[in-house]
Specification:
By secondary structure, this protein is an alpha+beta fold. It is built from seven helices and 18 strands. The protein folds into two domains: about 1-125 and about 285-295, Diaminopimelate Epimerase, Chain A, domain 1 (Roll), CATH 3.10.310; about 130-280, Diaminopimelate Epimerase, Chain A, domain 1 (Roll). Helix content is about 20%, strand content about 40%. β16 and β17 form a beta hairpin.
Length: about 300
Amino acid sequence: MKKFKFKKIDAFATQKSDGNPAGMVYLNAFDDITAEEMLRIAKELKGFVSEVGYATRIDDTTFDLKYYSSEREVEFCGHATVAIMYDLIKNSDDLKNKKQINIITCKGNLTVENRIGSEDAVFITAPVPVFSPNEIDAERIAKALRIDSAEIDHDPPVSVVNAGLETLIVPIKSLNGILSISPDLDELKGFCIENAIDIITVFTDEVGDKENSYRTRVFAPTFGYLEDPATGSGNSAFGCYLLKNRIWDGSFLSLEQNGNLENPNIIKLMAKDTEGDRPRVVFGGGAIVRIEGEYILQ
């Protein structure tokens, strides 16, 4: 029998919204658990959390993170990263006053900026984006999403970008159009697998709250569930897309996400300059611990 420190944490949660649930397992070392056991825990928690994050401390300012859905290992999970790092920093006396923490992920070494004191949030530098030449016909996309192809905008164009996960970015013409999207899980999963896509981010510049700049929704059927209600990687890919198409200057951006008009989750984006490289997208938010205890594997 194995016992692990466990928390259920809702990332990007606000007073008006539930955020996105992640399971957190804290380890002394990754030698304490196998890949099969990490996947098993994620399978057991299917429907209770979107993904499970596993974290171990390497040194004073560095943590190693891995992520699993009920289907497979996830290369990068933004909301789980926000949940883990917000919780670790807020509850660790030696981390509270550190401005920057380092994390090791399958997508490289990334930085975490501690803004809990000033903004009740942590900000994660997204992985270096990779833009794909893959072009997917709008009619096929519309069929997979079960919408009229006339709902898809083409300026800026549909694109595929990886900022942690291979993400199809689809502009939608109206807020009503984006809120009415209701695809079938298995049908959309087949479309994603066929086109080597991890997730689909749809967006519009029509919003429910004028304090926000865009409404997004993110569908993730290849990870065992239809919709991700609040996303770091999907919105980071969207931020990279906005930068590439020169419709965002990298200043602070507030996004509303999910299919609920009145109670969206809020994701914050900005971009920072890097030496000899394009600006990097940074995403941020807070988190709320819902359950804390031990996870027992027998």
